[in-house]
Structure to design on (404 residues):
């Protein structure tokens, strides 16, 4: 076969195996209600947790960014791509998450890829050394790919069972007397397919006991978890105790793009010299930087958005269970509605769209076989009327399909 035939053959196989991903384009701005195929539908598939993607203050800040600083910077940070607003945003994020310093990236995916290789692939004064990474089995793809960039001859990679602290401690204890240079425990703060939270207090305790760096990707928690949206560290009352905290600006914080790593001044200064995705990627454009600054300012001064998100989440979780659907327990706006088979998730997603609810299904290989689900994502942009309309559609479609 030639390359084109191979591509087409694989696409056909994906479609037949019910793992093909179809895109459903929006005809409107992102929000609690969006326009799809000429029809207004309730959005339950977006990372726009706080409704900031189309918030008037955020839109104005983005427009002001272009007027004041231009469309793009046309450079990487260390050449001429650093504007004062980039430094301002880094300081703002540091203060918000309780860290000494912060470094911006084009995305959190890039941040996670840049972190692990920057540490483990550099000698840092050692001619010969060995590092070890302990990673939760359900960590995000960006953490997994970041670890793949670590050279096998210098880095041991060990997987612990999902949020199983006994298994993690067993691995740490087995390695207690090994002469590792860096020991890194890596976890999501919130696991995006399940909506459950990592047990940060126990992770902090284990990291201190075994001399490990604790790395937490808080992408689905920043702006979401904790009374003021400072993420899983605030939720668990361990703010300022995480060694390496990464996050995205592309979900709750305006929903555009960008990511960051927050940590000690020494670590961040080191990453500015050694992290390749930072060194060789263009800086974030001014519109995004100014919009994100406005987002963090809004979060710091107006607690109503986070409060509304938490209220909406609790209401939807309670009512979807009352209808007879099985969900994974959590307090997070990611609500995993368990259906089992991929075909059921696909058919139900399509049926709900016809009933005015935009929601996507997840199935193998994104989640394990037999654990297909719909992933509802609740937003502060949704009104109680929106949620009730969505719940009515769930009741109708669920009954018709024999799910409830």
């Amino acid at each position: 076969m030639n390359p084109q035939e191979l591509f087409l053959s694989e696409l056909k196989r994906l479609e037949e195996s019910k793992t093909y991903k179809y895109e459903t384009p929006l005809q409107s701005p992102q929000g609690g209600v969006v326009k799809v195929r000429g029809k207004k539908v309730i959005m339950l598939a977006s990372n726009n947790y706080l409704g900031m993607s189309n918030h008037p203050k955020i839109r104005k800040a983005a427009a002001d960014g272009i007027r004041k600083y231009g469309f793009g910077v046309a450079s990487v940070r260390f050449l001429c791509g650093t504007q004062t607003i980039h430094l301002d945003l880094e300081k703002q994020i540091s203060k918000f998450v309780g860290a000494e310093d912060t470094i911006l990236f084009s995305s959190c995916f890039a941040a996670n890829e840049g972190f692990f290789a920057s540490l483990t692939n550099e000698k840092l004064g050692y001619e010969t050394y060995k590092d070890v990474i302990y990673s939760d089995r359900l960590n995000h793809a960006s953490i997994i790919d970041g670890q793949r960039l670590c050279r096998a001859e210098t880095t041991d990679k060990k997987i612990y069972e999902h949020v199983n602290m006994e298994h993690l401690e067993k691995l740490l204890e087995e390695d207690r007397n090994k002469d590792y240079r860096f020991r890194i425990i890596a976890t999501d703060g919130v696991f995006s397919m399940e909506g459950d939270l990592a047990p940060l207090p126990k992770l902090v305790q284990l990291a201190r006991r075994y001399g490990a760096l604790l790395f937490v990707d808080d992408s689905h928690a920043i702006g979401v978890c904790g009374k003021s949206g400072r993420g899983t560290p605030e939720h668990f009352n361990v703010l300022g105790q995480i060694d390496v905290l990464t996050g995205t600006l592309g979900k709750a914080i305006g929903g555009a793009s960008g990511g960051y790593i927050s940590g000690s001044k020494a670590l961040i200064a080191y990453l500015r010299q050694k992290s390749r995705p930072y060194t060789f990627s263009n800086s974030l454009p001014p519109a995004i930087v100014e919009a994100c600054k406005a987002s963090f300012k809004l979060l710091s001064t107006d607690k109503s958005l986070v409060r509304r998100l938490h209220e909406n989440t609790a209401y939807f979780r309670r009512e979807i269970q009352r209808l007879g659907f099985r969900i994974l327990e959590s307090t997070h706006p990611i609500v995993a509605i368990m259906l089992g088979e991929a075909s059921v998730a696909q058919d139900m997603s399509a049926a709900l769209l016809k009933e005015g609810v935009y929601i996507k299904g997840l199935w193998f290989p994104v989640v394990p076989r037999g654990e297909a689900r719909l992933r509802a994502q609740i937003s502060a942009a949704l009104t109680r009327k929106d949620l009730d309309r969505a719940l009515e559609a769930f009741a109708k479609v669920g009954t018709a399909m024999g799910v409830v």
Remarks:
- The radius of gyration is 22 Å.
- The mean pLDDT is 95.
